């Protein structure tokens, strides 16, 4: 434990630096595991966003995915085409907008990724399992609020 942590003098800058380091480590992990999935980092991240939307029951519009990933319309179309071709995502007609489509992950994508990433995720899961319920609550609350803040930035 760092002396600043013991002294209670952790600053906003310290947390932002730690988040930057965490994002860099996560990106590196995605790069290391993309060979397992035979998928690029953007594709893996897109699949994660689509899967989360699918689990919420919403699905995701391609325009939403484009905004989250910061990709052009042409690039997002190519990315979606790759995911659909590999069988991990399906395009469905939007229920209320005939011009739009909704992306949903398939059960194939979930099973494939769980198998492929089980060993890669185990060290992360071990750290999470080592936290007590108070720590888990604090971490989860922080991450949810940070994601909301980052999503707001992506939408603006």
TrEMBL record:
Q: Which GO terms describe its molecular function?
A: DNA-binding transcription factor activity
Q: Write down the SMART domains for this protein, in alphabetical order.
A: HTH_MARR (SM00347)
**InterPro entries, per database record:** HTH_MarR-typ, MarR/SlyA-like, WH-like_DNA-bd_sf, WH_DNA-bd_sf
UniProt cross-references to Gene3D superfamilies, sorted A to Z: Winged helix-like DNA-binding domain superfamily/Winged helix DNA-binding domain
Which positions fall inside the HTH marR-type domain? 12-148
- Biological processes annotated in GO: response to stress
- The name this protein carries in UniProt is HTH marR-type domain-containing protein
